[in-house]
C-alpha cells in the first residue's frame, strides 16, 4: 500500500499528525530497503539472460513479482475471497461504483490537462449525476443516461505529451508499472479526493475497503492468468504494456517501429491469402 505523504499545515499540527508523518517516512524508508534488496538478489541470477529492451531490470522485476505473488496469496487473496463471500453482489457492485465515482475526479483533471474537453465534461457530468441521483456514486446512473467512463490518469497524460514509458517496473505491493506511470502515480495520489481526508480511521478504512474491493474484482482474472500462462510474469508484462499504450492513444495506437500492419500484406482479390515475397536468387 502506498504511503501517502500528507501536506503539513503551517500551524496547529498536533502530536498525532507529527507521529503520522514519521510513520509515513518510516514506511517509505522500509519500502526503499526492500526494493534495493530485491534488486540485488534479482540481478545476481541468470547473468546470461536475453534482455528485453522494454524490461532491462527483469531480474529485479521478477524478484518483486514473486514477492508480490507470495504476499497476495498469503494475505490479499484470502481477505478478498472472504469479502466476496459475505458481500451480496448488489452491495459489492455499489462499493465498486462508489470508488469509480471518486476516480472520475482524477479522470476529469487529466482530460483537462490533455485538452480533451468533451471527455472532461463527461467526467464532470458523471460525478454530478452519480453523486446526487446515484447516492454518492453507489448507483452508476450516468452510464445509463449515456455518459461514458474514461478513467484517464497522470501516466496517460504524460504519455499524451510525449513522455516515453521508460523501463517496465514491478513495484512492491502495487504490481506492474513503468518509469512514466510511477511518476504519474504522484499526480494520481494528489488528485485523489481521499488524499484530502484527515489520516484517521475513516481514511484508512476507505483505503482498505477500496484495496479489498479491487482485489476481489480481479480474483477471476488472477485465476485465468495462473492457469493459462506458461510464464505469468511475461504474460502480465506484455498485457500491461500493450494496454497502457492503447490507453495513451485512446484505443488507436500507431504501429510500433519495425512492425508493419499484417493486413497490408493481404491480397483481398486473391484466395491465396497473404502475398509471399519472391524468393531471393541463389
Structure description:
By secondary structure, the chain is mainly alpha-helical. It has a domain at 58-251. It is built from ten helices and two strands. Strands 1-2 form a two-stranded antiparallel sheet. Helix 6 packs across helix 10. The N and C termini lie far apart (62 Å).
What is the topology?
Elements: H1 15-43, H2 58-86, H3 89-113, H4 117-132, H5 141-144, H6 154-160, E1 168-171, E2 175-178, H7 179-191, H8 201-217, H9 219-228, H10 232-248
Antiparallel strand pairs: 1-2
Main features:
282 residues, two-stranded antiparallel ribbon, single chain, 59% helix, mainly alpha, 10 helices
Condensed summary:
With 282 residues, the chain is mainly α. The protein has 10 helices and 2 strands, in the order H-H-H-H-H-H-E-E-H-H-H-H.
Q: What is the rounded Rg? A: 22 Å
Series of H and E elements: HHHHHHEEHHHH
Strand content: under 5%
- Major sheet attributes: 2 strands, antiparallel
Structural class: mainly alpha
**Distance between the terminal alpha carbons, to the nearest Å?**
62 Å
Strands across the major sheet, in which order?
A: 1-2
Please report the number of helical segments.
Answer: 10
The average pLDDT is 83
Q: Given the C-alpha coordinates, what overall shape results?
A: globular
Counting DSSP E segments of at least 2 residues, the number of strands comes to 2
Helix content: 55-70%
Taking pLDDT < 50 over at least 5 consecutive residues as the criterion, the unreliable ranges are 1-23, 276-282
